[in-house]
Specification:
Elements lengths: L1 H17 L13 E8 L3 E7 L12 E4 L2 E4 L1 E5 L4 E6 L10 E6 L2 E6 L19 E9 L4 E8 L3 H11 L5 E4 L4 E3 L4
Length: about 180
Amino acid sequence: MRKMFLFLMMLTVLVSTLGVQTTKARADGLITYEGGEFVVGVGILFTFDASSYRNKDLKNATIYVGSDFYDLNCWVRKEDGEILCSVRGGLTQFAGQTAIIYLAGQIFYVTIPRPGGPNDDSSLSCTDGLVSGADVMVDFGSGPDGPYFVPGNTLAEVQSLAESWFSGATSIDIVSGLYCSAEPT
């Protein structure tokens, strides 16, 4: 009886092993890092070239920088074959530093982009009722606060006025390029 039971068990294991279907490994799950940039109103935006991914595959994406993990908000743009990941502008304090992105089981080493745009060092002319300036994040020791619009014709003027306005701050970071907005009250 015992031999019969062992024989049936071995036969079951053999049949189940031979009955398993295998599939070819797919290389279409490869993600390639394309670059990162600071986008006013969005924050830092990282772009990846990828196909065959769905939004649910991108859950739990994180970025590691400054000895801490931060959540990434990622989504698939199928028509362009891209994955876009954004993180709020508070990470601009790490601009120029290397960070690690964990996305869909893959790891990417990236550089945190500097804030700003095409008008970083030049003045900007605005229509009536608007003034040029930039957004700044201010830290009074309890973490970044803002962004606050600070007027100025150049980023140097914005930095100087922000230092005057927020004289007790431990750090003041410009987080956008120059743009036109209503003068703060």
